[in-house]
Amino acid sequence: MITQKMKYALKALLALADEVDGGIQHPLTIEEIARRSGTPKRFLEHILLEVRNAGVIGSIRGRSGGYVLIKKPQEISISELLRTIDGPIAPLPCLSRRAYQRCEDCADESTCRIRRIFAEVFWSYLVMIESLTLQDMLRSGMEAAEVPGRAQDA
Fold first, then answer.
1. 47 vs 53: CA distance, rounded Å
2. Please, what is the angle between helix 4-17 and helix 30-37, to 10°?
3. Sequential DSSP letters for 82-132
4. Quick one: which of 13, 89, 98 has its CA closest to 51?
5. Cβ neighbourhood burial of 80 (10 Å; 0-12, 13-18, 19+)
6. What are the pLDDT digits (tens) for 105-135?
7. How is the chain split among helix, strand and coil, in percent rounded to 5?
8. I need a surface site. Which of 9, 106, 149, 152 has the fewest CB within 10 A?
9. Cα–Cα distance measured from residue 93 to residue 153, given in angstroms and rounded to the nearest whole number
């Protein structure tokens, strides 16, 4: 499961992406992002700082300032965002590419049946999640809005 923090990050990025009009990004204040995304402002400040430090959004100072996307939605990887916000996404530490750790109770990874079955499931998940971008989520939202009677939160 993704954490609530990750859901807030995604909602904030979607709110910012919705402000791109003809290639022009309109900055949103943290208050406006919180309102549009339904995210508590006190959580959002910390989350936006992490996302900014990851190079996904930027902040503009001043009266007409706020936050903007500095990457195009099709360049914002959902898997990278997951790792930034929630940490490693592998179900076992011995399957992680970036945070690999040998399992303390495992004598031999090559014969570990637990590792083998979770590796199969994880690699399938990884292929899918690494292909997703913020653009896919924007497109998905538009499709749901266009289909009458379609549940948006399945």
1. 10
2. 110
3. HHHHH----SSGGG-SSS----TT-S-GGG-HHHHHHHHHHHHHHHHHTT-
4. 13
5. middle
6. 888 988 999 999 999 999 999 999 999 999 9
7. 55, 10, 35
8. 149
9. 31
Euclidean distance between CA atoms 135 and 54, whole angstroms: 18
**Stated pTM of the model:** 0.81
Helix (H) or strand (E) holding 68: strand 66-69
Q: Which amino acid is at 52?
A: R
Instruction: Return the bridge partners of 77, or none.
Output: 133
Looking at residue 74, its amino acid is Q
Q: Do the Cβ atoms of 130 and 77 come closer than 8 Å?
A: yes
Q: Which amino acid is at 64?
A: S
